[in-house]
Specification:
By secondary structure, the protein is α/β, with parallel strands linked by helices. The chain has a domain of 213 residues: FAD/NAD(P)-binding domain, CATH 3.50.50. Helices cover 37% and strands 24% of the residues. It is built from 14 helices and 18 strands. The strands form four sheets. The protein has a seven-stranded mixed β-sheet with strand order 5-4-13-14-15-12-16, sandwiched between helices. It has a six-stranded mixed β-sheet with strand order 7-2-1-11-18-17, sandwiched between helices. The protein is globular, with a radius of gyration of 21 Å.
């Protein structure tokens, strides 16, 4: 006799947005869910994201929109500044919201926190996997092992599950020629000076941005061109070396870069198959779209929801149906992200000027339509084909 959902056990590897959302839907579909996360503690903060699209609908189904709205960052504009901090161009929040329907700007960590707070499944931090079989048997670093009816690899671009089951990163990871870093810190004076605007200084192949968060806190995002995906041994020193010649608030930001700063290559993940046996990948592990594309959090939540929809509809062929619905949206967004590099990280002064001109003219309908095509890939249809998971 096949097991009922109440008897089925699932292991989710990764407690980011994809993993937490997968666990949320699985436990409400009757699965016995465990979550492991290699980080020693929950990862708060992160960089600002514009959350909309199909993930917004998933959050509505989960009943999380009120909590997300409560954490909305009151960003009034996106402002391009010069090396002295003078405004070059600006797009207002109202103009941006007109091209990104329902957008909620918030820290990535705040989105993850809202999902975690509504999750009942236990999360084991400082834990990962050392072996994963496609039969669902998992071995942990302490030598213990267990068997699961489902193993969800939701452990990001550098997925350990993907490497163990599908092969080395070189087979699937596409480097996009940039490194990025993000961190937050307390500075009431700078926070008041910057205000609730996302302000950014862009020079060819480099961008540094910051914004006030709440209670005197600041968040910073740095991006630069690098020929090699290899990460530096000392990321904080590498950032100071790379951005040390810039003006505006760069010296202030670089003086407070924490030793444990979030720092990574900017890459996409492209895989022909997202599942094998009882193992399935979700989110960045199988379909990272990159910082340039954005929408990674939205697609991660969408993928998790669709996966459990299809499992609830019938285990036979569920993984194939899940991939068939989600992968086209991921592929489309990845293509969009590669085109967007020239918008977010312009390679020359004239490209920066062209982008700033679009900001200045953003009130015109024709320019607004152009910006819509530049910042918002059309992936909303991914949720229309299925049913909500059983709850």
């Amino acid at each position: 006799m096949p097991k009922s959902n109440a008897q089925r056990r699932a292991l989710v590897v990764g407690a980011g947005i994809a993993g937490l959302t997968s666990a949320w839907w699985l436990e409400r579909a009757g699965w016995d869910v465990s979550v492991v996360e290699k980080a020693p503690s929950f990862r708060a903060g992160g960089y600002m994201i514009d959350f909309f699209g199909p993930g917004h609908e998933v959050a509505r189904r989960m009943g999380l929109l009120p909590a997300l709205e409560a954490r909305r960052a009151p960003i009034s504009s996106v402002t391009s500044v010069d090396s002295s901090g003078r405004r070059r161009a600006e797009i207002s929040a109202s103009a941006y919201e007109a091209v990104a329907d329902g957008v909620i700007s918030l820290l990535r960590g705040d989105l993850a926190s809202v999902i975690r707070d509504d999750l009942r499944a236990p999360i084991r931090f400082g834990a990962t996997v050392s072996a994963v079989g496609d039969d669902g048997r998992v071995t942990f670093p302490d030598g213990s092992s267990d068997e699961f009816d489902l193993v969800v690899g939701a452990d990001g671009v550098h997925s350990r599950v993907r490497e163990l089951v599908f092969g080395p990163p070189s087979s699937f990871v596409r480097y996009l020629g940039h490194h990025t870093a993000a961190f937050s810190f307390q500075d009431a004076e700078l926070s008041a000076r910057i205000g609730h605007r996302y302000q950014m200084l862009t020079v060819p192949h480099r961008m540094i941005g910051c914004y006030a968060v709440r209670d005197g806190a600041m968040a910073a995002l740095l991006l630069y061109r690098s020929d090699s995906p290899e990460l530096p041994a000392d990321p904080a020193s590498a950032l100071r070396e790379r951005f040390g010649d810039l003006g505006w608030v760069a010296p202030s930001l670089l003086s407070v870069v924490p030793d444990d700063v979030y720092y990574d290559e900017v890459s996409q993940v492209d895989m022909p198959m997202w599942h094998r046996g009882k193992v399935v990948l979700v989110g960045d592990a199988c379909g990272a779209v990159s910082l340039f594309a954005g929408h990674g959090a939205s697609l991660a939540m969408t993928g998790a929801c669709v996966l459990v929809e299809e499992l609830s509809a019938g285990a036979e062929g569920a993984f194939e149906r899940y991939q068939g619905r989600v992968k086209p949206a991921v592929t489309h967004t990845q293509e969009f992200g590669r085109r967007f590099i020239g918008w977010m990280a312009p390679s020359s002064a004239w490209r920066i000027s062209l982008r700033d001109m679009a900001f200045r003219l953003s009130g015109l309908p024709v320019v607004r339509n152009l910006i819509r095509g530049s910042v918002a890939p059309d992936v909303d249809g991914v949720l229309t084909a299925g049913r909500e998971p059983s709850r």
